[in-house]
Every structure is written in C-alpha cells, then in structure tokens.
Amino acid sequence: MSKIMITGAAGFLGSHLTKELLGQGHQVVGVDNLVTGRMSNLSECMNHPGFRFIEFDVSNKAIIDVEGVQEVDEIYHLASPASPKLYQASSIETIYVNTIGTQNMLELARRYNAKVLYASTSEAYGDPEVHPQPEEYRGNVNTWGPRACYDEAKRLGEVFCYEYHRLYQVRTKVVRLFNTYSAGLRNDDGRVISNFVTQALMGDDITVYGDGSQTRSFCYVDDTIRALMRMMELDAATGQIINIGNPNEHSVLDVALLVKQLTNTTSAITFHELPEDDPKVRRPVIDRAADILGWHPDISLEEGLRRTIHSYQEKLALI
Question: Which of 5, 33, 52, 76 would be 57's cystine partner, CB 3.0–4.6 Å?
C-alpha cells in the first residue's frame, strides 16, 4: 500500500478522500493549517493507525522537511478555500496556497519521485463565453475583481504543474473540479447547496442571487472522490488537465425549487443582487474523463440532495 499525503485534509474534499484511502489500507498523512478546515471532519480518522495529522501551512517552504512527509508516494494537493465567501475572506492566503503551496508540493514530489494531483477549478474558465466548457477553452477571466484571488491563483498553480512536468518530469495531474456537494459542506460555507438546504431546514428565506437563471452543474462528492482516485492511479492521466463534474446543468432557481420540494419547507424564495463576476453558465465537457479515466458520475442531483438533506437534518437535531 502507498504512503499518501493530502493537503487540506480537514476540508470538505480532503476529509472524504482521507476516509476512503484509509479504508483501502493506505497510510495517509493529512496536512492542514485549519484556516477553513475543521478537525471535526477528521474525528473518525484520528485514532486510525494508518493516519497522521500535521497542522502546518503548506505555503511555508519548511513543509518539505517536516517530519512525516518523507518518502511519500502520492500527493493530493487539495488545500485552498473553495467557496467565494471563504476565499474572499482569506484572499492573500488563497493566492499563496495555490501558487507557493503548489510549488512546495511539486518540490516534495520531485525529491521523492511522487505523483501529484493538483485540484484546480472550473473557475479557471471565468464567466465563460464557450458553453459547455472543454479543457481546451482558455477562459474569460477578470484579474481585477473579488474572485481573482482564487481564479488566477488556480490558473498559476496549473502553470507550476506544467513546468515541473516539462522541466523535471514530475508526474503531475491537474483536475478542474466543477461544483461538488454533500452534507460534508460547512453550513456556513456560502455555496449554493449548503445555503439552500440549511435555509430550508431552518425555515429561513432561500436566498437566490440574480434572477436564478444562471446555471451550475452539481457533482455529488462520492463521484468526485472516485474520479480523483482513478486519476491518481492511471499513468495515462500524467501531464493532463481533466474536467471532473456532472454534465447535467440546472438553473439556480430550479435547484432552490427542488430543495424546497424535497424539504417540504415553508421557506420563501427571495432574490438578491448578483455578486460581481458571478459566472452565468457552468457545465463541463467530460469526454476526456470518460476516455482517459473511464469515469462518469452516477448520482443524480435529486438523489444527492436527498442524501444531503437527510444528513443535515440529523446534524440539526443534535444542536
């Protein structure tokens, strides 16, 4: 079995991935500075004999020499705030972790001949003028706005991966993640589904930004984790950028109405000003994921929402 390092291990995706890899018998080193990650996400892992947690900022170059990260076989670089609310609140840290932090992980991989999977984002496409978005599309991005700290830092992280693969033959793999969700998202995360489900269950107004006609593609976390592991496993994914997301597109208003229906809530839907640079459409072309990884998502939005709502209901009952 492999020794695997996960940055952002206490976050949403990182904690899900940690549990899955431990369940398969791997040794996992989880690293997180806990700016947005929560130790409660890893509570069931802390006493696992195959797990080691290191509280550290991977933007600090000293991470390369921290005890416990030596001789890693694989690195999943997932560390970064991912919701606009959280990355805008930690904008400089977001830039650092996706640029300097990415270079540090690539240097670590270079030292130990490890594979690196870098979690980039569909935000690399900005407010796209090509729809749906294939990996070849270069995007329509704004470098001078509130989302740039995330969008542009992720794009530069991709460049680091390209250069380390080109110059040093580091086995880099870049995944552009589209909206991923489940009950593991923080209730205060600020993203569409966590907002809608929490508001509906609390009986609060369901807040839709703009007129709700903007679209998103929502991938349930189990499907996303399966794709990440498959991508790390396959040599054919080395040196590739691959979209991972559900190609079924939904308007934000339709999602709000579906949440309202599934929760049987009396919450009203209210409309608010659209945030600056908010993308109008978002849907992945996943042909490359299908061809290289043999991957496609299995869980529908309705099924994923039912699972998410049930879990949020259990959490709220404990408060």
Answer: 33
pLDDT, residue 188, reads 64
Q: Which of 118, 150, 164, 312 is catalytic?
A: 150
Residue 284 per-residue DSSP state: B
**3-state class (DSSP) for residue 3:** strand
Q: Does the annotation count 150 as an active-site position?
A: yes
pLDDT value for 277: 80
Considering the domain delimited by 3-181+219-245+283-298, tell me its CATH architecture: 3-Layer(aba) Sandwich (3.40)
Distance CA 126, CA 147 (A): 9
Enumerate the domain spans of the chain: 3-181+219-245+283-298
pLDDT value, residue 175: 98
Q: Give me the residues paired with residue 119 across strands.
A: 175
Per DSSP, 98 falls in state: H
Which residues of the chain are under the pLDDT cut of 70?
186-190, 318-319
